[in-house]
Amino acid sequence: MSTGPAFKRLPRAVRQQQMLDSAVRIFSRRGYHSASMDEIAEAAGISKPMVYAYLGTKEELFVACLHREGTRMMEAIAGAAAPDLPADERLWRGLRAFLGFVGAHRDGWAVLYRQARAEQSLARELTVMRARLVEVVAGMLNHALRAEGRQVADTELEVVAYALVGASESLADWLADHPEADPEKTATQMMNVAWLGAGQLLHGVTWRPAGMPATRRHRTTPGPGAERGAASGGPPPVTP
């Protein structure tokens, strides 16, 4: 008669997802260093040797958690932001999918955004994921610009994409701590901030500080800096 623990036989893929679910939950709540493989195995209802056999060391397990949660997030965004939609609708749906993911997977977001950033050896994984997200956003903006008959340098698109991604990440981190907040409403609030700027850029409207020469590539709008420039003898806004 066996005295060891009895485990229900499950397909390997199902068992592996069980382990990842437990690992994400433990890592998010305990932190990478404080989490133990014993805790993760117990939460998954399996033996510790089985965790090692399926997913390797603790660091390898953490990276597997990052990859799974990152892939889920990217798939949610890509699936929501269909390329045939108008630019504003596409960006809003992408934001809604992103913040919806955070709202539904708060532990996963904690692992992606908080735990990974705190570990030097694991930060590269987060950097790669962020670069993929920036690439997706830059592609969305580029598609919208081309539909308007405009072209913008890749570096300009990258700057705007990084700004949007950074702001969205900060808002997502706030959302993760406020379970009472509605992800869709939060996405709409973010869209109002983002699109008032991005929408203007799509139509060639830019702001410049006082004294900066205007270019004829873009139509500029006389913001506070432009008004100060006009009052001090600086160049006026230029409309092609």
Provide tags for this entry.
240 residues; Tetracycline Repressor, domain 2; two-stranded parallel sheet; 2 domains; disordered C terminus; single chain; disordered N terminus
Walkthrough of the structure:
Helix content is 69%, strand content 2%. The protein is mainly alpha-helical and 240 residues long. It has two domains: 11-56, Homeodomain-like (Arc Repressor Mutant, subunit A, Orthogonal Bundle), CATH 1.10.10; 63-202, Orthogonal Bundle (Tetracycline Repressor, domain 2), CATH 1.10.357.10. It is elongated. Residues 1-6 and 216-240 have low confidence and may be disordered.
Q: Could you tell me the strand content as a percent range?
A: under 5%
| N→C terminal distance | 88 Å
Helix fraction, binned, reads: 55-70%
Largest sheet geometry: 2 strands, parallel
